[in-house]
User: Fold these one by one.
Assistant:
Number 1:
Amino acid sequence: MNDSEYPSKLLENAVAQIATLPGVGRKSALRLVLNLLRRSEAEVLQFSNAFIQLKQEVKYCAKCHNISDTELCNICSDSRRDNTVLCVVENIRDVMSVEATHQFKGLYHVLGGIISPMDGVSPSDLNIDSLQQRIVTEGIKEIIIALSTTMEGDTTAYYLYRRLNPTGVKITTIARGIAIGDELQYADELTLGRSILDRIPFDSINK
Amino acid sequence: MNDSEYPSKLLENAVAQIATLPGVGRKSALRLVLNLLRRSEAEVLQFSNAFIQLKQEVKYCAKCHNISDTELCNICSDSRRDNTVLCVVENIRDVMSVEATHQFKGLYHVLGGIISPMDGVSPSDLNIDSLQQRIVTEGIKEIIIALSTTMEGDTTAYYLYRRLNPTGVKITTIARGIAIGDELQYADELTLGRSILDRIPFDSINK
């Protein structure tokens, strides 16, 4: 056996590559590579080419910056949707999460991140200029800020509020409160306090 | 949005491919693909080509069937190793596990699986003929059967014992007992019983 713990450089390289994925350790990387190795060459090509093709051919919607196969994404080009309301989200995964609720019929705007000095992400790295432009040129009436309720999310939301308020657009944010199915005794004080301050008419919850 | 929950077919395809890996669900597959998408094209090519190259160029040792970059693997071609003892294992991962113990200085023989009627694996699917041949042509004095102590592993071990016993080779198997660091109260009865039957001289444990 050579100095490495792997009997083959090719194997070692494949394990090292798959271990670059977040949350995949060396042990499970080896398991995954051996699983790939048991497949036919055609299957391995299909596997690997999916990522190359995605990277080389992916487009982002010219309007909302969502990932898309066409110049305008399916949401932006859907005439049945309300084009006066924008839901501002951090990334395309959040677009998918909001879409999965079937509760939003407006359009999106993907920031491409949130402000995070720790990670070196400043407002200029995000799609904020284009958001400001859209509000004016598309005649947007309301923007819903749908960011994580973390420190970075709140910072970004506050920054957006200050930047966009002068345009006169109505700015809202998603409700904070007790998650449906949660027990009160396990709710944190901040959230519980907020949910009392922001209490809603009882007959609105069944609508 | 189209009928799919994904905004892009390319994205959907990449997620579907990575979700073919064992233990990777749809949600984490999306997370992994978005991580890949943030990398440069060169990095994605490096990632994907590692698996293609492994599949297209991988070799197996002509003697022991371990994965190898050369015709004979590093272990089989290492003259310092004892070429009269063979450790019989299920797969290349088990070679790596035994190597990591630094307790074995002989050679290996990789079966390429274990007998499992449930999975349609019969003795003829395994590298057993070549094992029998090696015992004769290489003048092997001992084979150590190092298979999992599961029903399939035991079945395979018993099959090997019956096939190889006529050659007159000494056949041993790895010790079963209480794992080092385990508490007796949590040991199962079979293992504990076995460890009493197979008790060893006390002064041998520190050797």
Number 2:
Amino acid sequence: MSIVVVGTIGYDTIDTTHGGVSEALGGSASFFALAARFFAPVSIVAAVGSDFREEHWRLFRERSIDLRGMAQIEGPTFRWHGRYHEDMNVRDTVSLALNVFEGFKPDLLPDQQRADYVFLSNISPELQLHVLSQVASPKLVAADTMNHWIENARPALLKLLPRVDILTLNDEEARMLTGEANLIRAGRAILKLGPKTVLVKRGEYGVLKFGGDSMFATPAWPLEEVIDPTGAGDTFAGALMGWLARTGRLTESILRTGIVYGSVLASFTVEKFAVERLATLAWEDIEERYRAFIELTDSHHSRWMSQ
Amino acid sequence: MSIVVVGTIGYDTIDTTHGGVSEALGGSASFFALAARFFAPVSIVAAVGSDFREEHWRLFRERSIDLRGMAQIEGPTFRWHGRYHEDMNVRDTVSLALNVFEGFKPDLLPDQQRADYVFLSNISPELQLHVLSQVASPKLVAADTMNHWIENARPALLKLLPRVDILTLNDEEARMLTGEANLIRAGRAILKLGPKTVLVKRGEYGVLKFGGDSMFATPAWPLEEVIDPTGAGDTFAGALMGWLARTGRLTESILRTGIVYGSVLASFTVEKFAVERLATLAWEDIEERYRAFIELTDSHHSRWMSQ
């Protein structure tokens, strides 16, 4: 089954203490789609400017990503300039220009309106609601949010949450949304706001799942070096949604496998700048790390002993 | 098979933002023994003063902990006064008095010298070496250390490490010992210093195992409230060593199960002040949380689906 994602596509300039990139393809919809496409067909809803480069149209197209919902508007594409600290969990936004994304209010294509799987990436809750209202009867809706919307668009966010099956956010955002310092209490408090499942992303410490049949905790894939954390969360969501769309069902076991695939794909994304690693990733790379991830986290080590 | 533990037994005064205790039974050997005894016989090597209270002799004795190696010396018992911040990962030592533990150089009993399982808790590397040199042919030696010894007794610590099968330390200490900011590199670098297995304790984020057949990562049991983190690390080591002594073997699978038991017991310890929770814990409590822990971390959720 196919997935519709709404989000940004833009050009990122990223500085770290060990180097950087300038005007690299980025944006939530880019990372999401480049991860999800390994599992299921994905259709993007986004806006790019007249400066959006042919090589990037091609990059998506060659990976069978549906771009019919990508509006090309006169003017410059969305741009973000971020700077990571030595501790890569901390970053500053040097500059942000919405450009053609400002005021973007998409009308979904007829087949997008019939989508089963919808991902509302980290854009304003108003825009998330605008897109969701056009989807006739989605089977599963997931959304991401961030501190900016929690602080400045709380009423719209609270209106969205009861319509969301899976909400993803990071640990700080979970605390901010609920006012609970303890993350376990925060996760449970968010469930009361409406989402059936809450996935709290803890960066190098992995993911906590609240809701569903039971709680699930999984570590992140251990990396000796993180080059660029940008897009890890959207990559995670892309692989997770891709897996859910591919299986077409939502059992506890399928959800957990999706979280592991999400963690695996995200671990590739951060190995290089921007979408560089995602763009060259092969299915064999994913399967190999998936198996290693299961071994890494298997408390009994039993699957491997019996082989 | 039985375990010998050398460490402190003392009286702790603990302040937190939500209350505290005064002159409560504590010390690394106390937590270790009260956890290990659920799995295997444990024998303590420690010194207490003339003020050590009868109720605490009884507390150990009623739990079949061997106290023949516990010297009672004229003078006051070891005392520690700690203060936790709002963020309970941070604590200050208000005061520390070694008292009768100062200059303690134990001679092991003949049967302790024949011990198979030895735990050298967080005392000076010189004292750890002094005890270890008396054990004829230990099957498995584990040791804990801390920032103080890494900074002030590095040569002795480096002498100890090649003789250690399992080293436990926390993430900050792993970074300090190796000078590696990345925890994965730090863990691997410690293996080169001698220990066959390194267990990095990450508090609420769980444990990372380096060495052995493969890497293992497990989260901590999610708690809505942490009352007092004191002794969590020694409790972890106690349950782990207890499990290893009980099984008498060291396969990857047995080691992982021991790490989970360690995490489970530690999660009980932090639920109340000092040894309060450990002292009232029943085997049924452990088994119940162990099963829930396996479910929490099972990527496939398969064990539960097939039941």
Number 3:
Amino acid sequence: MTKQLSEAEALEVIKSGKVGHLGCVVNGEPYVVPINYIFDGNSIYSHSLPGLKIDAMRAQPRVCLQVEEIENNFRWRSALLYGDYEEIRVPSDRRNVLSKLLVEFPSLTPVESVMAKDAAAPDSIVFRFVIDRITGVAEE
Amino acid sequence: MTKQLSEAEALEVIKSGKVGHLGCVVNGEPYVVPINYIFDGNSIYSHSLPGLKIDAMRAQPRVCLQVEEIENNFRWRSALLYGDYEEIRVPSDRRNVLSKLLVEFPSLTPVESVMAKDAAAPDSIVFRFVIDRITGVAEE
């Protein structure tokens, strides 16, 4: 039935995924939202316009990201990683991350494509989670 | 760009979904896991074998469930509901819920199919969340 994934197997799920479900805690309550991400082997990178998600992570930086591969109800893998939210504020670093997101997600909205070229655009918040724990389960 | 859904629109997303991402809080940290569910207009019903998810919700019953409909990166809807975890322990109620889950998810594992017939099976934990708040966002 269900089995635990090794850390290496869970990392594979994270590596091959593009969309995950971010979990954070807002005023003691859970909050879940899907995000696009890229992964460099150590950290998850993503970006967002200002809003509840950013406010939540600024207030309570402990976050998780769940990523799944579902073939069917009997064959799936799900990884869960933990990290702390950090904003990337150095313009060259922001531009670098946004460019990589644009390569991975060519269907970024026009506003986001502009932001990738102009890292000084004030609305875009670029962030990462340095992963410090990773687990996973599978049914195979 | 992104717009808020009305409560009625968010309920539509919940009604037409079958899989959601459950968020709960475990020792102050967020935890996210995909679940199958059914919805009767007021409550979300699901079931699970014992484990971290059940332990977490027993310790901290405040949960959320996020459900999405994604057509593409420019056209999607996502609903988020909140409720409190409650276990369904009356055997006839458990059997009733498990039977409905079995109709909706005919690919339940053999063990779960047996449980649907035998609500006294000790391993199956049947639960619901009575929804008390629902929000949603969309890009259209």
Number 4:
Amino acid sequence: MIAELISVGTEILLGNIVNTNSAYLAEKCAQLGLSLYYQTVVGDNEGRMRETIRTALDRSDIIILTGGLGPTEDDLTKEITAEVMGLPLKEDAHTRQLLEDYLAQYQKNDAQRRITSNNYKQALVPEGAYILDNHNGTAPGLIMEKDGKTAVLLPGPPGEMKPMFEEKVYPYLRKKQPETIFSQMVKICSIGESQVADEIQDLIETQTNPTIAPYAKTGEVHLRITAKGGSQKECEELIRPMVRELERRFGKNVFAETENMTLEEAVTVLLWNRNLTLSTAESCTGGAIAARIVNVPGASDVFLQGMVTYSNEAKKRTLGVSEDTLRLYGAVSEECAKEMAEGGCSFSGTDVCLSVTGIAGPGGGTLEKPVGTVFMGCCVKGKTTVREYHFTGNRARVREQTAAHGLAFLRSCILENS
Amino acid sequence: MIAELISVGTEILLGNIVNTNSAYLAEKCAQLGLSLYYQTVVGDNEGRMRETIRTALDRSDIIILTGGLGPTEDDLTKEITAEVMGLPLKEDAHTRQLLEDYLAQYQKNDAQRRITSNNYKQALVPEGAYILDNHNGTAPGLIMEKDGKTAVLLPGPPGEMKPMFEEKVYPYLRKKQPETIFSQMVKICSIGESQVADEIQDLIETQTNPTIAPYAKTGEVHLRITAKGGSQKECEELIRPMVRELERRFGKNVFAETENMTLEEAVTVLLWNRNLTLSTAESCTGGAIAARIVNVPGASDVFLQGMVTYSNEAKKRTLGVSEDTLRLYGAVSEECAKEMAEGGCSFSGTDVCLSVTGIAGPGGGTLEKPVGTVFMGCCVKGKTTVREYHFTGNRARVREQTAAHGLAFLRSCILENS
């Protein structure tokens, strides 16, 4: 079956935000075994939206639209898709109720916030449409079907779109697909994208069924192995030897073999299994590593405390970094990273502490320690490892890479020293 | 003039990489005052590329294509665009020479790399085309013109595309555009999207030049005011009264009036101006607020320390939250938020401390304090304000909203209490 993606919204059209929804949905379509030939971005313009939706419904079986479901007059996705498909709109009592509950909640937080008549346009739904409740916002999603064509309408914000797609749309589309497609993820850290590509080139060149597709993420490479077959069991049997081969090639750099397992979750599970507690001492990342770990439900069992010691004063007071170290080597140094990690264990009483200190830029770089220089320390039960990294890109990129590589470094230190 | 973007390549189509080129080029088109109505992504497929290019040339004056200029058989952008525009290909001696020089360089670095006859296909150019040398790769860019239509072909890798666009294409297109476009941003916090929409509905209904476009972000609404005119000065004069009117309507909830000013930067500037230092004491957000503040270059001048006190033990030890408070009211309570904020000021020696403690879920909710309940405290020079919030959505959403509203709360407390 042929699918097509349409992103609606002037914000994406004019480049105010990067279209990450399309990359996400394209990957999901691949997982579902849907053929994807086109992605389109169109602004909040009635005529052009009508034209785009009509063309897409003409050439594809399933169209997935994101954006334009909000309460403002600009938001026209539902109205125009329903019109093109010939489905009249009417108010849905259940959606109206959910909307009122959600807005009441919001008003409780902020008495200034008023509910407007615009909000209620979100409770209108096309006849016969399948309504997808939105637990993360006010705009419900919709699935409409007519004459063998399916239109899936999803809200634009990724935080609303992704959970809705995973909970409701994925299983719905799954049922439409007669052939079984099954895929498994092998996630790798601590090796670069081009090295991974190099090491699997022979596998990619000879691939038929299963196939391998690499996806580069910051500090990680994900390999998706996909098989087509008569049943899930048949697919799994096709996939297994390939997964074994990848495990053989990448060894302990494989940190996960399921879709949803994140690097921070893999680290948390490792700490659980080894009965270790963790703290973090961050300078240039400013809490970003702690925030990723806390993202794991139940992280509180192992993660006791995060310290964001941004000033030298805080490094001394909280972590006991010595005046001499700061004076002789500076805050961005191997010595400081070591003292931060060891001091973090002492202060918070944890078995493990990860420390990072670096220059995220744009200022602060020197010839000897250019922007992007980061030192990381990891103390595991008194044994401390320190490593120097050099990242490229702007401030945000340096910090993002530091957080990702920090988790990978933490993982490798736990594996080696406990 | 109407422009249109086409990204060519299976990698983007299937979601292996995120399409950042389109966001970049869209913003550049807006700067050039080109109207952008569509963006399309199409795979390396001859028929679908021909169809897409033909449609785009039909409805737009300028089409900008990225990708598909490489040496492999899959790379067809130049061949198909030239065919659709009716321009024959012939070898260009200068391009051939540049290509040979570049490949010789590469071979010096990597003896394994072979030059294939495919490489030389990159030296073929459409008749009359303007050739854009590529100093960062092998594929030259091209500008073709015929019958009042312009096609700009650029390489796909952003590191090759961006410098080529900036050096050659931007000035080329600048000359084509007689009208100047200028826009300004007005950013608002502490008010919801639909309320903002409501309060500017009359302005949007009567808009001509300038126009207003609202963009909803988590915890923020951005309004872009755009004017067209003969010069930047003329545009600025058209924009000014509208900005004044928005300031009148939204008062101190306007936190920024430039494109790049973020909420965390506005808070940091406020602290700078009032000569105040800041610390944070976070529980459920796990450092996410600190991480946003540290994102501001130079934040170290005002932000001294972040404390991620995830366990009760850490709350007591670091922040001096009393055993009684934790026992009687629990860690997620008004009382605890207050003690965290005040203890944070004491421990880190700052003038201001923002504290957050809440239930991000999925577990931990009760009837009295459901998932999404968050208490925030803000101590400004000894004066503490506490507020209760109720957010909806999954763990990541609750945390994202808490961080965004936390910054807005911090800002309003500083405005009121210092």
